[in-house]
Specification:
4-stranded antiparallel β-sheet; 819 residues; 13 strands; elongated; alpha+beta; 5-stranded antiparallel β-sheet; 2 domains
Length: 819
């Protein structure tokens, strides 16, 4: 591999414009593919074969409009006064206008609903009055008949009339109980200044095109009702707003500054940025080209951007840094680029392979949206590797010796650039370093013991967003449970006669009584009965929001409640759907998939590291260090986003559960990046060791050789990932923070402190490998030991003679300077 990459690097450097044009064409093709074939991105997540998904599918099949997505609109007067008649009419008209939009099945007018509820209350009162009057008339008629001696003759007639009155009274009583159970569900606030409307779609959130959802909010905004403010739930808000914002741009600018400072010049500082941007463009646009045929979540391309930028910059930087060190030591430009590509580029390839394994292994979880996220991320990393080993050498060949500053070029081969033999660290220092580093990471990981998982709700959005305003207004005016109502299905073993209103009412009341008896249930509303009577649906309003502990417990209680007994329809099996139950099911599926995922990722990566380092202990040290940094990152994420520590700094105004797929994504990303740094540092250790340096001295040599580039690379990754901490997307913030802090812990604590200390304590035994295993393992030569090292020529400078390849004058040769 090292020789192949060296030849590839030499070819790219000799034919730079061919390589550059090739990548430009690839970028154009990826962009064209996206414009031609790209589809919509989903705003939600679904996992097949979960209880929630089964209930949702059944609702969609049996009850029209019940299983579709529901978007909430909050109308509020800007001065807190009651709605005027003109404002109410304008709101009703604006909602009616949305009924003609694509996939809109129904709308809920808050004022019409409130009127209907008032009418129902009046009808119940009038019905009871009429029944009492009818009963009084029947009693009087019966008394008169008895007095006239006609009681026996008219007994059957009186019995039939009494049975009718009793049936009507039972129906009225049952209706009153249903009405009482739903009494807390109102659509207009007590002071008449706030109202809740809704748009019901004929498809689930995953199946809806974002354009169809946004068309509803655009239509309502266009109504421009005087004196009324509108706020939309996340189902109707722009889910892609905030993907690239000020924080993300600031992160890239910080990365650029770090590159320029580290490399000491503007030109070499921008080379990694150029190559990474090309890689991100090709990888993300190419992946989005398939979004028309593959269900892809809106967060998926963001992960591709994050990974593509971070690893693209790091991989190019590693090769450029190796090339610059070689030039400074006196190696010619012609020899240095192939050598850098064969050594540092070789490490990049194997480092990238660990990231690819970690991301592609997300497909073994059996969770479709995670598999797609992992595949897109892997594609972006693969493109970053290909760009690093082709475009980077091409750019280096194009800039020639200008990759060094003028001052550095004037001192080529001077003694200050020569490597001096390092001294190994003290053993006592290694012991103290290892203990302190491990204990510190374990302490930071403590909050992870209380980790709660879920999907973000409106309370997690930015405070200035319409989603957050809608969520908080609903919670304040109508109760937090209205933001996360559950849908409960009831499936009787003996179907009810859907044409018999009294039979339906009896079953509905029996089910509602069982539901209302549960803790934290505020209201229950019947929402539909299947035509065959085999399925009934209810809306259950909990006391708190969808991400609260009490609502999670309620979901569990409702599921444990099933089945319940009915008087006429046998046993009734209950099913639960809704955001809270979906969170529980997704979190459980992810928790079940995590052990298998970890085993696959770590197992395959250990095999690669055994192959690369020809050691059994080095891979174990690397993996153990990763686990420490991973759990420390989870602890930090829990403390910030769940406990609310330092919330003002990170924009966490309403702490809640941690994003449920964050732990799995962090495994895939952080493990791959941790192995990047491990390869960059440990490959230098092995290179020194195989060239005769004592084992403990080789540890220091490896750290010294890679320390600057690892620190710079880590700062760049932290900057890029950290920029996403302040994203407007609630799902992106914990991912960005977890990746940034995970890189911080792994690079600065594990790879630069803990791992070298353990390697020192192990000494030569760190590189132990059984002889039988050594014989059967292929030699991948990641450190490029098979490549010939050209003799260093001190005191050299560029004179631009004729190239041995083209015969033209070029900067490809250096000759001894005249002294």
């Amino acid at each position: 591999m090292a020789r192949l990459l060296a030849r590839l690097g030499g070819f790219s450097a000799r034919r730079p414009w061919l390589i550059i044009i090739g990548w430009v064409l690839a970028l154009a093709a990826a962009g064209g593919g996206y414009l031609h074939s790209g589809g919509a991105l989903a705003n939600g997540f679904s996992i097949p074969n979960t209880p929630t998904q089964a209930v949702t599918d059944r609702l969609s099949e049996e009850l029209d409009g019940v299983g579709g997505a529901v978007g909430t609109i909050v109308f509020q007067t800007d001065d807190g006064s009651a709605f005027t008649a003109q404002q109410q009419a304008a709101i009703t008209a604006a909602l009616d206008d949305t009924t003609g939009l694509d996939h809109v099945a129904n709308v809920v007018d808050p004022f019409a609903t409130a009127d209907q509820k008032a009418q129902q209350a009046q009808q119940l009162a009038d019905g009871r009055t009429q029944l009492d009057a009818g009963q009084a008339q029947l009693d009087a008629a019966h008394a008169q008949a008895e007095a006239a001696g006609m009681g026996a003759a008219l007994a059957d007639q009186f019995a039939q009339q009494q049975a009718q009155i009793d049936a009507q009274r039972e129906q009225l009583d049952l209706g009153a109980r249903l009405f009482a159970n739903a009494s807390e569900v109102v659509t207009v606030s007590a002071n008449d200044s706030t109202a809740i409307g809704a748009v019901v779609f004929d498809a689930t959130l995953l199946d809806l095109d974002p354009a169809d959802r946004l068309a509803v909010s655009d239509s309502l905004r266009a109504a421009d009702i005087p004196g009324v403010d509108l706020y939309f739930s996340s189902e109707l808000a722009n889910s892609l707003d905030g993907i690239i914002g000020v924080g993300e741009i600031a992160g890239v600018l910080i990365a650029a500054i770090v590159l320029i400072v580290m490399l000491g010049a503007l030109l070499p500082g921008v080379l990694p940025l150029i190559s990474s941007l090309v890689g991100v463009g090709v990888g993300v646009a190419g992946s989005l080209a398939f979004s028309g045929v593959v269900d892809m979540a809106s967060v998926t391309p963001v992960l591709g951007v994050m990974l593509g930028l971070a690893v693209g910059i790091d991989y190019a930087l590693f090769i450029i840094n190796r090339h610059r060190r070689q030039l400074k030591s006196g190696i010619s430009l012609r020899d240095s680029i192939p050598l850098a590509n064969g050594t540092a580029g070789n490490a990049v390839v194997f480092a990238g392979s660990t990231v690819l394994i970690a991301l592609l292994a997300l497909n073994v979880t059996g969770i479709p949206f995670l598999g797609v996220m992992g595949t897109v991320g892997a594609v972006c990393v693969l493109i970053a590797v290909l760009v690093a080993v082709t475009l980077t050498p091409a750019l280096l060949g194009l800039v020639g010796m200008r990759v060094l500053s003028k001052r550095a070029r004037a001192k080529l081969g001077m003694p200050e650039h020569a490597a001096t033999p390092p001294n190994p660290m003290k053993t006592w220092r290694a012991i103290v370093t290892a203990v302190v580093a491990a204990v510190a990471l374990l302490v930071v990981a403590v909050p992870a013991l209380s980790l709660r998982l879920g999907l973000p709700d409106g309370s997690s959005e930015a405070e200035d967003s319409t989603q957050y305003r809608a969520y908080t207004i609903v919670a304040d005016e109508f109760g937090a449970g209205r933001n996360g109502a559950l849908v409960v299905t009831a499936e009787p073993s003996t179907p009810v006669d859907a044409t018999d209103d009294l039979a339906v009412l009896r079953l509905q009341v029996q089910v509602e009584d069982a539901l209302m008896a549960q803790n934290d249930v505020v209201a229950v509303v019947p929402v539909g009965v299947a035509s065959d009577g085999g399925l009934l649906a209810f809306q259950v309003v909990p006391g708190d929001g969808p991400s609260s502990v009490s609502t999670e417990e309620l979901v569990a209680d409702l599921r444990d409640l099933s089945p319940i007994d009915s008087d006429d329809n046998g046993t009734v099996v209950l099913g639960v759907a809704g955001q809270a139950s979906g969170n529980i099911d997704i979190s459980a599926a992810l928790a079940n998939a995590l052990p298998l995922y970890l085993a696959v990722v770590i197992g395959l990566s250990i095999l690669i590291m055994v192959l690369v380092f020809r050691s059994l202990l080095v891979p174990l040290i690397a993996t153990g260090g990763f686990l420490l940094s991973y759990f420390a990152a989870l602890g930090a994420v829990t403390a910030i986003f769940q406990w609310g520590w330092l919330g003002q700094i990170f924009g966490v105004h309403d702490p809640g559960p941690v994003l449920n797929f964050a732990p799995v994504i962090l495994v895939g990303v952080l493990f791959g990046l941790a192995m990047d740094y491990q390869l960059f540092i440990a490959s230098g250790m092995r290179e020194a060791f195989v060239h005769g340096t004592p084992a403990r001295t080789a540890v220091v040599a490896g750290v010294r050789g890679a320390r600057a580039v690892v620190i710079a690379a880590a700062i760049i990754m932290i900057s890029v990932f950290g920029g996403f901490v302040f994203s407007h997307l609630a799902m992106i913030r914990p991912l960005g923070f977890g990746m940034a802090v995970g890189v911080l812990f792994d690079a600065f604590v594990v790879r630069l402190l803990l791992m070298p200390a353990l390697m020192h304590l192990l000494g030569r035994s760190a590189w132990w490998l059984p002889k039988w295993l050594d014989r059967i393992l292929p030699n991948v030569d990641v450190e490029g030991a098979s490549l010939a090292r050209p003799a260093l020529r001190p005191g050299t400078h560029v004179v631009s003679p004729r190239s041995a390849v083209s015969g033209r004058k070029t900067e490809w040769e250096t000759t001894p300077s005249k002294r």
